[in-house]
Amino acid sequence: MWEESKTTPPQEKKTIRPKRSYEDGGDWILGAQAFLSLAFVGVVLAAKILQWPILSPIRTTFMALMQPEQSLFLSEERNFSAFTEEVARSVEETVSTLWQSVNGSATAETAARNIHPKAQPVPAGASLESYLPDFSLVFPLQGWNNTETSGYGWRTNPMGGSGTEFHLGNDLAAEEGTTILAAADGVVRVAAVHPSYGNYLRILHENGDETLYAHLQYLFVHVGQRLSRGEPIGTVGDTGNTTGPHLHFELLHKGIRYDPSEALQTAA
User: Positive or negative, the Cα torsion across 15, 16, 22, 28?
Assistant: First the structure.
């Protein structure tokens, strides 16, 4: 041996470890691979579908275990480590695809439900009910009938804003300058200019009922003036917040605004 030789210089002794093939490890490696893979798939699927908050820690822990120096037998099984890391990536991609499919279905269902959203609450001072006064009305636009362009209640903001708004009356389309008539006998309570209503009138009738006329071009009457049913009170205009000439008409009973559609349909 080289230790006893005086003429031959010593050489470093090398220990050659035979390469271990994937098959040399026996069936226990395959079993471990299958078990970990199935367990990981099951846990990740459950976490994704049930929206568990532990999904990220699960993945982090699993990937840490896949590092060669972290487990009992993976330290010497590089092939197994590479296999399990590939499984982790494949499972993540599969779960991501599945989740997008499930989430897409939920989004479609949500969109379908939003087609018929729950009714929004009615603003204070308004009612969704119709109201017919005890006295008869005349249609407030001379020579025009059935000209409603926007009814009472919730609607998309016509001024181009986002969301919806509660429309407190009926919009009646007519040419600018069309004569507006008092819907019933009464006294002018308000004749003024408003940022939204523009030029507008508010007439007090029997039993405290009121009618309101907005977006007028001109006002023919003044506060305190007594009016007869069908008397001219102004002309259709485009003042205030409007998208074109029309009359905005409201009907109030005991200070509450009601849907005037039925009252206008029965007006003479």
Answer: negative
